[in-house]
Description:
Distance between the termini: 50 Å
Mean pLDDT: 86
Shape: globular
Amino acid sequence: MTTRAMQEIENLRTVVIKEAWPYWLGAIMLGLANICIFIITAAPWGVTTTFVFWGAWLYQLVGGHPETWSFFTLQPPMMQALKGGILNHGGSIMNIGIIIGAFLSAAAASQFRFKKIKAGRQVVAALVGGLLMGYGARLAFGCNVGAYFSGIASMSLHGWVFGIFIFVGAYLGSKLLVKYFM
């Protein structure tokens, strides 16, 4: 391979892997992914419901019986998915792919690193914020993917309401972050 060809390959690698992609390209790719997921699974793209299953399967490992929970007993498809296990659950496969893909993207862009925790209040804030986000996602029947992105794509009013309040929450959260943690 010539030096020029090797330089072109390196330039392409830098543009595709190291540099941030434009927002419009990300929007197009997310839209196409949403369409493909809807075609393949016959359901809108969701992320957080899978965490209910992960918690249930972990609970089963320690001897619990989540199959008695109303979430599963009142919804036969959910009970069927619970019995199928993690490798037969499409949402689990997608979420595992998201986690691995995010790690590989960060690593390929040389952005993956462990950071020292500056103060204990950062840990407390992260735990409280994560719990509030998880609780809110379950109340809203989804996170920014299921409730907002798939909600709007499905022409559902709840997606637009979710969108308004996620911007309000982001604004207030950023003000609290600056005031107490910066």
